[in-house]
Design a protein that fits this description.
The active site is at 82. Keywords: Methyltransferase, Restriction system, S-adenosyl-L-methionine, Transferase. This protein has 345 residues and is α/β, with parallel strands linked by helices. It has a domain at 6-182 and 329-342: Vaccinia Virus protein VP39 (Rossmann fold, 3-Layer(aba) Sandwich). The protein is 30% helix and 14% strand. Strands 3-2-1-4-7-9-8 form a 7-stranded mixed sheet, with helices on both faces. It has a two-stranded antiparallel ribbon with strand order 5-6. A two-stranded parallel sheet has the order 10-11. The protein is globular and about 60 Å long. It starts with 5 loop residues before the first strand and ends with a helix.
């Protein structure tokens, strides 16, 4: 691990963001999240890192430093939940809901890393007519960072998913971070991502039944010895028969009138489109179906769409695994950013 830049991942979840950094040659020292299930998976997939269950609403950087023995770090990354921001006038006010974001700021203040990367929902940029964005920039500028932000689309960086996320990157010495340009001319589609995975459930660790059917599958299998987390969901006969009427890439509009209203959400009865990147993988709301099979994607199929390698095994209940996958930053996108950040270290 000598000379590798060091990383702390705050609000790490199962570790999609930090996994991208590991693949780019960083040494992830620590991941912190308040959700125990996510930390169990994090520890299992980040072998050299400490993973601790802690509420960053209550724990200070000083306490964490004392507890872990980590005194210095090169990069701090993470995605504090900011959906609940409360604003008054032109300020983020000292409301309880803002404290998790403030906790991220406090860690950066305490450790003074060379670079930080903060990830969030795209509308953080426009929230309160830009008040939140401007406050974020100002908070970090006061700590001596040059801050830039951008909303990136994952499918432009090799991820088979049209997922938009906002990233704020702060650097020192007045060097302004330049976001990487899109890396792929041809987007990876859903079929490229999951067509080698079968219709039925598989026992964890079973060997692949076929060779990889795309360059992406070759990449994502890596040196994996088998398939994990491929347990299908058994739907009711009614659900199966309704979804069988929807074509590849179709949705409720393809159904007869009397069936359209069987689920009162406009995303219901949507099939993935085999020829396009997937829409955003959520945390398991069960409205999106496989482009070919009459069922929702498995955890492994969802993980593929999120660009997790097959060696990344999710632990916990199936519901918990779906949530871990859905909450994560796609590792391939994280990896592209991590490589670019290296130039600033």
């Amino acid at each position: 691990m000598k000379n590798k830049p060091t990383v702390i991942d705050l609000f790490c979840g199962c570790g999609g963001l930090s996994y991208g950094f590991i693949e780019a040659g960083y040494d992830v020292l620590l991941g912190i999240d308040h959700w125990k299930d996510a930390i169990v998976t994090f520890k299992n997939t980040h072998r050299n890192a400490k993973g601790i269950v802690a509420d960053l609403f209550k724990e200070s950087p000083e306490e964490i430093s004392k507890q872990t023995g980590i005194k210095n770090v090169d990069v701090i990354i993470g995605g504090p939940p900011c959906q609940g921001f409360s604003i008054a006038g032109k300020r983020i006010i000292d409301d309880e809901r803002n404290q998790l974001y403030k906790s991220f700021v406090n860690f950066v203040d305490y450790y003074q890393p060379k670079v930080f990367l903060m990830e969030n929902v795209p509308n953080i940029v426009s929230m309160g007519k830009g008040v939140v964005r401007d406050n974020i920039i100002e908070d970090f500028e006061q700590l001596g960072y040059t801050v830039v932000y951008k909303v990136l689309l994952a499918s432009e960086y090799g991820v088979p998913q049209n997922r938009r996320r906002a990233f704020f990157v702060g650097t020192k010495k007045n060097k302004e971070f330049i976001f990487p340009k899109p890396t792929n001319e041809n987007q990876v589609n859903t079929k490229d991502a999951i067509s080698d995975l079968p219709e039925k459930s598989l026992v964890d660790g079973i060997n692949y039944k076929t060779g990889p059917k795309s360059e992406y599958q070759k990449l994502i299998r890596g040196n994996s010895n088998g398939i994990y987390n491929h347990e299908i969901t058994n739907h009711s006969e009614q659900t199966t028969s309704i979804i069988s009427l929807v074509p590849d890439g179709g949705n409720y509009k393809d159904l007869p009138d009397e069936l359209r209203k069987t689920r009162n959400v406009n995303i219901a009865w949507t099939r993935l489109n085999s020829k396009k990147p997937s829409f955003t993988i959520d945390t398991g709301h069960r409205h999106h179906f496989h482009y070919k099979y009459n069922r929702v994607p498995t955890v492994r199929e969802s993980a593929r769409i999120q660009s997790f390698p097959d060696t990344f095994i999710f632990l916990g209940s199936k519901t918990s695994q779906y949530k871990q996958v859905g909450n994560a930053v796609p590792p391939i996108l994280a990896n592209v950013l991590a490589k670019e950040i290296k130039k600033y270290l």
